[in-house]
Design the sequence.
């Protein structure tokens, strides 16, 4: 479809006298039944001093058809149509030749993007709210990779900070050395919750002894105290093992898992650079970089006691990442509440002379709630991600047992579909939207759900299996036999897939893929339903040539669904 669009832009530019870049900016997908592209003429009325319908009529009069493209005026729009047989053949050829690469491009070749996502805090569980950063980031890695970019996915583990002073104190008070080798992540979480509760109770009573001792433990950790380091190292190992099991279930992997502690050795150099460039100033004993001219509060980079902060470590991490990978773009998939932090540390880097910091993008997202509430780890009662995923798997397994008890590999399918249901519910929403989670709704096999889109793929696979014959070569089928409006709607949607992937990449928005997938599934369901009502419209038609063309179309649907599911980080079951 992209080649047809380019041709349409060139022809519309010649017919209108407008610059091709302006036409490209205005040209949009046409509404179903009104062509393939539409040029609205409303914004041209003032500069061309004509009514939009008159502008559209004038452009069509001067339009030169060719390359299978024609144009008609419809009120204030110029609707451009691609010849159906040509669209069918070129689309089916593209899908068949590109296979699993269909929908991607080479536009990003030679470019590198570093994507920072997941980033849980060690010695805490993967809570349900961690799903958003993990799956949005994982999807973006796949979307950028499909666009030709070299991708570097980094899990920036929270393994440093005063919270570890509290945990070390909790171990001193409530732990035992003979348990260090066998301690579990759940036990560490319990210790963390307990020490926070004790510190809070002491504070209510006017005391600070526990808080002071926790800060002392973190100072010992920073200074390399052997006991503090040994215990801290074990805590991190335990956490990473627990996280890895969850990432395997989600199908998520990273190029690098690097903790905040990795950058401690760079702190002096970061502070020295900011000092030498005249950016550091004292403020109530702390060191800050003023950002008044940007309309932002100062960026705090060191506390009065010299301890570094998130900003300092993120500056150090960005410097190392650019030195190592020479990235063209750096994404930080972090909740929208951290927007100021990312603006601040990126601007500090720019003020320090690092122009590449302008390519740092914060990719924010909204919160996810269950029953309208969001739990916090330090208060206990956190909703664990593993519990949600297992509940989804169990519910899907019960549905499969009821609807298809003889399904082969039912447990594997239930796992894939249950996990996919949770992932899709997250990614079908625009990432900055707050989500209310209802497990019973998201595991339904009808409606705008993960099971629905995965079942659509399985249904396409089932039709191809029932055919029991190899697909004909594209050159040996007649695309003119795909003449039903439902078939054309499917072909048009399939042809638009690469454009939607490009849009998802430019917006850093996986929901563009999810919404496209829902549209494709709905169109395929409509087509399949028509065939159920009218034997002449069935894919497995008695006429061999009609059947061959429809099987090719069905396979193109299957391949496109599979690729879209992959970009979302979901599996594509072949049977449900």
Sequence:
């Amino acid at each position: 479809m992209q080649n047809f669009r380019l041709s349409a832009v060139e022809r519309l530019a010649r017919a209108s006298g407008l610059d091709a870049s302006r036409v490209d900016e205005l040209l949009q997908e046409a509404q179903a039944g009104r062509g393939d592209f539409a040029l609205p003429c409303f914004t041209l009325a003032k500069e061309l001093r004509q009514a939009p319908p008159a502008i559209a009529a004038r452009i069509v009069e001067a339009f030169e058809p060719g390359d299978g493209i024609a144009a008609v005026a419809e009120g204030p729009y110029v609707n451009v149509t691609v010849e159906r047989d040509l669209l069918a053949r070129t689309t089916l050829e593209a899908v068949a030749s590109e296979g699993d690469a269909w929908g991607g491009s080479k536009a990003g070749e030679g470019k590198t993007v570093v994507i920072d996502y997941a980033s849980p805090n060690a010695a805490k569980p993967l809570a349900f709210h961690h799903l958003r950063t993990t799956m949005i980031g994982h999807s973006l890695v796949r979307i950028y990779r499909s666009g030709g970019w070299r991708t570097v996915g980094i899990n920036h583990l929270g393994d440093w900070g005063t919270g570890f002073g509290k945990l070390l104190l909790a171990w001193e008070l409530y732990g035992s050395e003979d348990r260090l080798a066998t301690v579990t992540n759940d036990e560490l979480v319990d210790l963390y919750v307990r020490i926070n509760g004790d510190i809070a109770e002491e504070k209510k009573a006017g005391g600070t002894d526990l808080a002071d001792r926790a800060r002392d433990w973190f100072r010992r950790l920073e200074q390399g105290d052997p006991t503090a380091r040994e215990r801290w190292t074990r805590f991190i190992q335990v956490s990473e093992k627990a996280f890895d099991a969850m990432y395997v279930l989600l199908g998520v992997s990273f190029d690098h898992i690097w903790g905040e502690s990795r950058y401690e050795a760079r702190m002096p150099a970061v502070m020295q650079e900011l000092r030498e460039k005249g950016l550091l100033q004292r403020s109530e004993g702390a060191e800050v970089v003023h950002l008044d001219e940007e309309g932002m509060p100062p960026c705090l980079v060191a506390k009065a006691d010299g301890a570094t902060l998130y900003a300092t470590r993120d500056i150090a991490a960005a410097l190392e990442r650019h030195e190592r990978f020479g990235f063209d773009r750096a994404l930080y998939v972090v909740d929208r509440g951290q927007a100021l932090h990312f603006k601040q540390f990126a601007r500090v880097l720019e003020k320090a002379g690092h122009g590449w910091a302008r390519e740092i993008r914060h990719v924010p997202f909204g919160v996810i709630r269950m029953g309208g509430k969001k739990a916090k780890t330090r208060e206990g009662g956190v909703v664990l991600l593993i519990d949600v995923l297992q509940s989804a798997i169990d519910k899907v397994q019960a549905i499969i047992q009821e609807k298809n008890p003889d399904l082969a590999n039912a447990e594997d399918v239930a796992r894939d579909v249950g996990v996919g249901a949770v992932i899709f519910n997250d990614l079908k929403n625009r990432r900055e939207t707050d989500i209310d989670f209802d497990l019973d709704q998201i595991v339904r096999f009808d409606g705008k759900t993960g099971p629905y889109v995965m079942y659509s793929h399985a249904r396409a696979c089932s039709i191809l299996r029932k055919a029991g014959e190899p697909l004909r070569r594209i050159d040996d089928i007649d695309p003119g036999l795909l003449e039903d409006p439902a078939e054309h709607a499917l072909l048009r949607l399939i042809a638009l897939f690469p454009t939607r992937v490009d849009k998802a990449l430019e917006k850093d928005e996986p929901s563009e893929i999810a919404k496209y997938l829902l549209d494709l599934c709905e169109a395929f369901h409509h087509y399949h339903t028509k065939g159920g009502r009218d034997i002449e419209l069935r894919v497995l038609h008695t006429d061999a040539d009609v059947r061959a063309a429809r099987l090719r179309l069905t396979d193109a649907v299957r391949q496109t669904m599979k690729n879209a599911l992959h970009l979302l980080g979901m599996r594509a079951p072949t049977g449900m």
Observations:
- The longest helix spans residues 226-250.
- The first strand starts at residue 28 and ends at 29.
- Residues 375-380 have pLDDT under 50 and may be disordered.
- The domain at 386-567 is CATH 1.10.730.10 (Isoleucyl-tRNA Synthetase; Domain 1).
